[in-house]
């Protein structure tokens, strides 16, 4: 049985998100990023279905970690939110 420790940590997800944005032309939705990152990191459906906190909602641990990874990238000035669930690389 897979657990939360079987998922990539935030630094790996941040790197994968940046690569995904580059691969996807510089901008993407949350869903596009999640699909690209999951494929790149070889995550299975089992990995993607590990719950974050079953008592608090339906969010998976992967979705939770992706949200924090995007937030850390945004706070670092590497990506920006351009609309509802849309992200793009910042011009550096």
Entry keywords:
92 residues; three-stranded antiparallel sheet; globular
Helices and strands, with pairings:
Layout (H helix, E strand, L loop, with lengths): L9 H14 L3 E3 H11 L4 H4 L12 H15 L3 E5 L2 E4 L3
Antiparallel strand pairs: 1-3, 2-3
Helix pairs in contact: 1-2, 1-4
Q: Summarize the helix and strand pattern as letters.
A: HEHHHEE
Instruction: Report the sheet with the most strands, covering strand number, pairing sense and barrel closure.
Output: 3 strands, antiparallel
Shape: globular
Structural class: alpha+beta
Distance between the ends: 42 Å
Helix content: 40-55%
**Would you tell me the overall average pLDDT?**
94
Give Rg in angstroms: 13 Å
The main sheet orders its strands as 1-3-2
- Classify the oligomer: single chain
Write a structural description.
The chain is α+β, with helices and mostly antiparallel strands. Helix content is 48%, strand content 13%. A three-stranded antiparallel beta sheet has the order 1-3-2. A hairpin with a 2-residue loop joins strand 2 and strand 3. Helix 1 packs across helix 2 and helix 1 crosses helix 4. The longest helix is centred in the last third of the chain and has 15 residues. It is globular. The relative contact order is 0.21. The mean pLDDT is 94.
